[in-house]
C-alpha cells in the first residue's frame, strides 16, 4: 500500500502497546492530553484495573485531531498478560501480493516454527485495532508466545486506513492476506484447514467482515474467528444510543461515530450504509466459522457484541461468549496483569489452540 495510507511512526504493537493499535480512542474529554480520570470516575471499574487506567490520557478522536490521535503516545508499559519465560522475537515485515489488480499488502509475520519441523501446522491472520482510522500491523506478545508453543504462523495485516481509504479497501487487504496464507499453505507448512482469523476492537470488526467475505467468495473457510471486543455496529452511538454505563473509557460514542463514518464514507447509523461493511447489519450468518467473542460490561460494544453472539447462535454457528465484569474497552491491553485480563487472555488463546491445534 502507499506509504501515505499508513500513519508514520506507528511501530508493531506489543500487547501493552495495544492502545496504539488495538483499541483506540481516549474517552470523553475533547482534546488529547487534557487530563486523566479521577478515582471518583472509576467506581464501577474492576479495582485491579484502576491504577493502570489512571495512566491513560483521554482522547475522543475527530477529523480535527486525527493526526494527533494516530501519533499519540503509546501505553506507558509494555508487559504481556503472561510474561514469557523466554523472550519472543519481534514480528518480521513482509510484503505480499494484493488481490488481482490491487496493490501489494504490507504485513508483519511471526513464525513459531521457522525450521518447519511441524508440517500441517496452524496459522492466524490477525487484524489490528484502531477504530478503523488508526493503528498499524502488530502481533500481541501473548499470541506470539502461543505461536511459538504450537508452531503457528501469524500474519498481521497493515491494511489501509479510513478515511483516506474507505470500505472495502481494508477488507480487500485482509482478504488478500488470508488468501495468500491459504494459497501458499504447502510452502509455509500450514494446513489450509487450520487457518484462523482474528483481531481486537476494529480488528475484531475486520475479522468478522473477513469471515463473510471468505464465505461469500468461496475463498477460504477459516477454522475459527477470534473477535476480541469487536467493533460490529455503526449504529451504536449514532442512531442507537449506547447502554448507560458503557463507553465512558477508552472508546466513546463520539469516537465510534467518527470511526464508522470514516470507514463507510457516509454518516454512521444511516439507512444507506453498505451492509457488507457492518457485520451487525447482516442477516445471512449461516455457514460462518465458529467464533470466540469477548467483551467487558463497561465496553461501548457490549450490547452489539451480545446481539451478534446471539445472532450467530441462532444461525447455527458455534459461539464461545465471554463477558468480563467491570471491564472497559481494551481492558486487557491497559491492565494486562489484572486477574480478569490474564484469565480472559488465557481463554481466547485456549479457544484458538483448540481450533487450530
Automatic annotation (TrEMBL):
Sequence ranges assigned to domain Alpha/beta hydrolase fold-3 in this UniProt record: 124-331
One of the Pfam families matching this protein, by short name: Abhydrolase_3
Lipoprotein as UniProt keyword: no
Coiled coil: none
Keyword set, alphabetical order: Hydrolase
InterPro entries in the record: AB_hydrolase_3 (IPR013094), AB_hydrolase_fold (IPR029058), GDXG_lipolytic_enzyme (IPR050300)
PANTHER family registered for this protein in UniProt: AB HYDROLASE SUPERFAMILY PROTEIN C4A8.06C, ALPHA_BETA HYDROLASE FOLD-3 DOMAIN-CONTAINING PROTEIN-RELATED
Name of this protein: Alpha/beta hydrolase fold-3 domain-containing protein
Species the sequence originates in: Sphingomonas cynarae
Amino acid at each position: 500500500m502507499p506509504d501515505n495510507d499508513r500513519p508514520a511512526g506507528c511501530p508493531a504493537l506489543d500487547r501493552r502497546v495495544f492502545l496504539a493499535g488495538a483499541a483506540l480512542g481516549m474517552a470523553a474529554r475533547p482534546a488529547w492530553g487534557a487530563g486523566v480520570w479521577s478515582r471518583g470516575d472509576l467506581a464501577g471499574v474492576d479495582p485491579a484495573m484502576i491504577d493502570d487506567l489512571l495512566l491513560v490520557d483521554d482522547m475522543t478522536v475527530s477529523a480535527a485531531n486525527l493526526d494527533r490521535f494516530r501519533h499519540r503516545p503509546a501505553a506507558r508499559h509494555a508487559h504481556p498478560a503472561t510474561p514469557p519465560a523466554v523472550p519472543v522475537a519481534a514480528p518480521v515485515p513482509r510484503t505480499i501480493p494484493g488481490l488481482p489488480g490491487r496493490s501489494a499488502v504490507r504485513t508483519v509475520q511471526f513464525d513459531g516454527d521457522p525450521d518447519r519441523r511441524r508440517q500441517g501446522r496452524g496459522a492466524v491472520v490477525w487484524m489490528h485495532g484502531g477504530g478503523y482510522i488508526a493503528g498499524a500491523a502488530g502481533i500481541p506478545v501473548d499470541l506470539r508466545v502461543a505461536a511459538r508453543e504450537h508452531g503457528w504462523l501469524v500474519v498481521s495485516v497493515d491494511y489501509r486506513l479510513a478515511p483516506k481509504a474507505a470500505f472495502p479497501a481494508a477488507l480487500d487487504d485482509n482478504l488478500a492476506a488470508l488468501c495468500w496464507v491459504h494459497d501458499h499453505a504447502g510452502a509455509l507448512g500450514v494446513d489450509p484447514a487450520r487457518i484462523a482469523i482474528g483481531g481486537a476492537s476494529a480488528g475484531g470488526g475486520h475479522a468478522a467482515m473477513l469471515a463473510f467475505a471468505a464465505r461469500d467468495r468461496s475463498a477460504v473457510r477459516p477454522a475459527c474467528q477470534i473477535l476480541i471486543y469487536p467493533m460490529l455496529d455503526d449504529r451504536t452511538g449514532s442512531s442507537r444510543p449506547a447502554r448507560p454505563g458503557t463507553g465512558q473509557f477508552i472508546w466513546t460514542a463520539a469516537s465510534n461515530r467518527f470511526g464508522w463514518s470514516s470507514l463507510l464514507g457516509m454518516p454512521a447509523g444511516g439507512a444507506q450504509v453498505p451492509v457488507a461493511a457492518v457485520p451487525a447489519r447482516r442477516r445471512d450468518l449461516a455457514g460462518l466459522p465458529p467464533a470466540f467473542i469477548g467483551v467487558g460490561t463497561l465496553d461501548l460494544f457490549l450490547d452489539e457484541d451480545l446481539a451478534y453472539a446471539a445472532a450467530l447462535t441462532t444461525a447455527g454457528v458455534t459461539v464461545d461468549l465471554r463477558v468480563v465484569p467491570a471491564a472497559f474497552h481494551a481492558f486487557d491491553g491497559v491492565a494486562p496483569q489484572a486477574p480478569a485480563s490474564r484469565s480472559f487472555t488465557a481463554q481466547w488463546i485456549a479457544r484458538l489452540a483448540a481450533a487450530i491445534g
